[in-house]
């Protein structure tokens, strides 16, 4: 199974995927709503080509059969989306990624014994790119859930924040304990999508390094003082 990226982009077309990947994003989830299987398959083939070109992970949203038929890297299913056992078995046999969605501690309890590779946790704030939106969490909601998860001793896969996230949110979100973030509209609606993708990549990378080394300036001083 491929590693779970700290920056994921949810898109509806190969053109958008190309721009995001050109900006450094290495995880693309294709999410199409209210379309037939043939159209979803056709768009999926084009997005898959982009992902192969850029060596990006390719995830299909809400359609395990399509993920299997396209030999995608994995599938993401929502809280209300069925995932037949035969599809789970085949996805696992192929070493595919299985992503799920959570919004409450009850969701985590429900997923605790499931073969889940990562969990999309949100929404962070209101967003128009997702239908049937669950209650907004905000930073306090994330912190509260992490405290409950810890107090109950629950084991979780990597948790990905999602829902209306902007670049200025990245640092505070990752400080809550999230593994990474998923974005859609902030890149899709940007006047320069490649630049927006690069900015998100920079923010995520910078926040991750700051967690490893809280004082980057101190580290730089130490390295500068070493006599090589």
What does this structure look like?
The chain is of the alpha/beta class. It has a single domain, classed as Aldolase class I (TIM Barrel, Alpha-Beta Barrel), CATH 3.20.20. The chain is 46% helix and 16% strand. It has an 8-stranded parallel beta barrel with strand order 1-2-3-4-5-6-7-8, surrounded by 6 helices. Helix 1 links the parallel strand 1 (7-11) and strand 2. The model is unreliable at 216-228 (pLDDT under 50).
**CATH topology call:** TIM Barrel
**Overall 3D form:** globular
What is the number of independent domains? 1
Average pLDDT level: 91
The level of helicity is: 40-55%
Low-confidence segments? 216-228
What's the β-strand tally? Answer: 8
Order of helices and strands: EHEHEHEHEHEHEHEHHH
CATH architecture: Alpha-Beta Barrel
What is the topology?
Layout: E1 7-11, H1 14-22, E2 27-30, H2 37-54, E3 57-61, H3 64-70, E4 74-77, H4 85-93, E5 97-102, H5 105-111, E6 118-121, H6 138-152, E7 159-162, H7 170-175, E8 180-183, H8 185-188, H9 193-212, H10 216-225
Parallel strand pairs: 1-2, 1-8, 2-3, 3-4, 4-5, 5-6, 6-7, 7-8
Helix pairs in contact: 1-2, 1-9
What labels would you give this structure?
10 helices, TIM Barrel, 8-stranded parallel barrel, globular, 46% helix, disordered C terminus, 228 residues, alpha/beta
Outline of this structure?
This protein has 228 residues and is α/β, with parallel strands linked by helices. Helix content is 46%, strand content 16%.
